[in-house]
Amino acid sequence: MQRITDLTISVLACVAAFLLSWPFWRDFEYWPESHAAWLVYFCVGFALSVYVFYVFIGSLRILFLHDAAPSPAGDDQAKRS
Amino acid sequence: MQIEYQTQRLSLRFFMLMLVLFLLQVGYGLVLATQHVDPSVQAGTINFNIARAEHLNLGILWILSGFIGAILFVAPLLARREMVAPWLIKLLFYALIVIAVWNFFTLRLAQYGIAGWWHGQPWLQQGLEYLEAGRIAGVLVLVGFAILAYVVLRTFPPVRQWNEIHWGLGLGVTALMAVWVFGLFYVARLDLQEYFRWFVVHYWVEGVWEVIHISLVGFLLVLMFKVDIKSVGFAVFWGVALVWLSGLIGNAHHYFWIGTPEFWQFWGSLFSALEPLPLVFCFWHIYLDAHTNQRPLENAPAFYFILGSVVLEQIGAGILGFSMTFALTNVWSHGTWVTPGHAHLALFGTFGMLGIAAAYYAVPIMRKAPDYDQRLGKLGFWLVLTGVLGLAFAFALGGTVQIYVYRILGLGWFGGDVSRAMGLFKLLLPMFGITFTFGAGILAYDLFTLGRRVRAPAAADPRGVLHGDAALPRSNTGWGRPLSGFEAGIWLMMMWVFGGIITLGLLSFNLPRVRVLADPTLPYLLAGVGYPGLLLVTLAFVWRFLASLEARASLPSPTVAANVLLPLPVRS
């Protein structure tokens, strides 16, 4: 469930970024000869950006979990003293 | 608190050099601000383009000096032994002075059209924005970085014993040298040259410096708050990973208008939209680490500047960078005053403040003055913070007017219309510049004389006002109450809401109502709400964060800082 939620948030965020990045003003007139190449740019770009966002959410969650856990440094100091 | 390794003392000279170059840079900033108001000031003696090149280059040099000082101070602690080849570090110091002086004089040759061409290379100065230094200075800088990388890597333990902070700093100093090479050759084709120029400017500053920044912030938090180093190591690892995951392709936001293939406009926009992610990550990292164990602030100025570094990174690099990173907004903002609004916060805020933070942490230890008078440091912090936020405010709003008058109305720069329209904001520059200069002067005086001034006797300071806050619990109600994660999240969200308004303001220039009918109401309204809102929220958040830390109850003095590192942590 957690993964689905993270993935959904990542996809939504990247759809917003995708729409803001779409070259609206080009009106397709200046595109290079290969439309297939552009499709690859769009698909690969979107997939990569979803991955980066997904990784960000996961690592941020673990960061909070780390800090919620008792500090092993404190245990070490206690042992040394 | 006392110094553990004698070679750590070598960092002191770099911090002092940092302050000298910082003051010089601020001086040039004041000249530039004055010339914005009256372009005839010093015209023909120090032309605007020369003063600007000096301002930029000095900014890079003093920040590097601060970074080197910080790295040299922490490297023996991370290695648990003295630094190797101290004579090389002394050589590096003198080389840095030679580079600074040489660069200072050769940049002025641009005023007379002298580049020093020899064998197809500009040896004295090359006039490429941000990389104005000639080839001689560039090669010397490369040698300096090679020395730094050699000393740090030889000092560190074997690679199998490295933790994430070793990796961050090790990769950082190596890449500092490697990426600089892209700026060391001249290409006649300007579009190709621009690729390499941005390799240095973006990958070097936003990629490599960022890695060093994340590692140093993490380690300073370990030293100051005795945070678990494994937790910090995790934050450093993912901070660095996210910087590279988003920034390697995100660099393409510099390729939009330099004659490169058009798909970069899509990829550059999409990936640089992700570049704030590591900065949000770093924001939470510092919040959590500063709040985990409820330790009081022992060295308040050092933490003030670390917080300033992380928050201004969020605002300047993250939010203002985000607002202009899309081709749809950048088409309006590039080459206007909107950009230096972002750049001042991102460069001075993120990297400059970290250098000053490291100096405030290290200098009292090296001068044996752990209970130094912290008031000047705090005052200096608030003055430079207010000053640089004010400068960003003036640049951003002045830039919005500039976009409208210059790009929408099409009035010419040299006709005098654009300059007149921006008049109010041009006046704000010297005003906030002077505020900043006072702060910089106070900081420099404080750090130069720290541990050498006559201290007030303890009897005259019964509440510990002068000598740190550990002995002075403040009220923990109102603004001093503990800052919860939920509240910090609300503050962060408010910053991004104003950032969203700013982005919409820049996007609105694309609307036919603005672009064709020349109605400036919407972009002016959104910029008028967004920029002041963002900067005021930033100021209030920093105040709130620091008030909550200063209100912490006094705790017993911690053990020597580096003890927390024993035994040497290994990657988990």
UniProtKB/TrEMBL annotation, chain A:
Keywords: Membrane, Transmembrane, Transmembrane helix. The chain crosses the membrane at residues 7-25, 37-57. This is Uncharacterized protein. It comes from Rhodanobacter denitrificans.
TrEMBL record, chain B:
The chain crosses the membrane at residues 12-31, 59-79, 91-114, 134-153, 165-187, 207-225, 232-252, 264-288, 300-322, 342-363, 379-404, 424-445, 490-509, 521-546. Pfam families: COX1. GO terms for cellular component: membrane. PROSITE patterns: COX1 (PS50855). One of its GO terms (molecular function) is heme binding. InterPro entries: Cyt_c_oxase-like_su1_dom, Cyt_c_oxase-like_su1_sf, Cyt_C_Oxase_1. Keywords: Electron transport, Membrane, Respiratory chain, Transmembrane, Transmembrane helix, Transport. This is Nitric-oxide reductase. It comes from Rhodanobacter denitrificans.
